[in-house]
Amino acid sequence: MRFTPILAAAAMVASLVAAPVLAQDMHSYTGENGTFDIPVEPQRIVALNDQILTLPLWELGAVVVGSTGRVDGEGNIYMRGGMDTFGIDFGNTDIAFIGTGDAIDLEAVAALEPDLIIGLPYTDPAIVEQLQAVAPAIVLDEDKLGFEGTLRTLAELSGQSESFAVRFDRYLANVERTRQFIGNPEEISAATTFIFPAGETLSAYRTGMGAFTRVFDDIGFQQIDLVAGIAESRVSLSPERIEELDADFIFGCYKHQAAATPEAIFAAYEKFAPGFCQALSACRNNQLVLLPGITFGGTMKSLELALELVESHVAGRSFTPFEE
Predict the structure, then answer these.
(1) Residue 225 falls inside a structural domain
(2) Residue 320 gets which letter from DSSP?
(3) Of 92, 108, 240, 322, which sits 20 to 30 A from 166 (CA to CA)?
(4) Domain range for 196
């Protein structure tokens, strides 16, 4: 990579935008990579992750001018989850593509004249450091912040805290409604799983699947022993341990990639562990539920949809309890 010309371009753009940035109200913010003075209400944000940063920022009403994205097998660029969640992509918004997460175009970022850049720990620290010549580049750790903490932080950074608080409070009120409809969620066990269509690996999650696992925690479902005591967010299973996954309800995801149709995911469970459905009470009793991939995104829409779908599958229905 041609660092000298890139840095020269970044420095030139930074000097051009210095005046309007300085005219903004500023405040101090401490991220994973240090403390920086940033605009109270940034007007030109560049996000260095599409699904975790760009989509929730766009949902909050922040002005996102650039984002990393993905490139499919045919060379088309896209935001992961953008079309499914909000019907947005690079082609129908003013958000510019600045490269992929591991190949960020620094000159493209500089040309956008951002007043704030937000990244994640996965971003190359050397790239983040070079971006400081363009605008304050804040690194957030969503694993430390958690689902709510990440959204609250993005709202704070983008000057949208009040609107987020109203929407999140409404979500919490709806959680209480769901708990009342279910009646006794603490007595219902739920396993959360993830598998790719190839059926090569299967994981059970305690936390860390965005809205998907956050909703289960908020409703108050009982976690299965397999994950209840682990410090990590998930555990990988072997086919021999498949019965440890059983619960009153088992939840999984489809539509997280093009090949992940509901039929393909059900087939993947069976491929991973032949006899899967007969081995598990939840599956034998039609209590294995697949939710669309949008439900493990990092947006309020994902959270609200996951809550509605879980409520529709569990509330007001009879089911066969799992008995060890």
Answers:
(1) yes
(2) -
(3) 92
(4) 174-314
